[in-house]
Write a structure and sequence with these properties.
Elements: E1 15-16, E2 25-26, E3 32-35, H1 37-40, H2 46-49, E4 60-63
Parallel strand pairs: 1-4, 3-4
Antiparallel strand pairs: 2-3
Amino acid sequence: MRMNWPDRKIAPVVTVLPTEQIKPSMTNDERSVAVCPASVRSDVSCATCGSCANRKRPAIPTLNGLS
């Protein structure tokens, strides 16, 4: 049985994409996937963004290229 975590309205739920993926995308079930700003912008960090921890976010954040 596939667990549909975004429908459970819990946080954090994230997806992991390849480092070169820097544009927003969609999942197979048409959910919006947003690229983590901290992974593509030098002026944003996890501490200043916090979208992963927001249960009411409009998109599933993706972690890519984080070191």
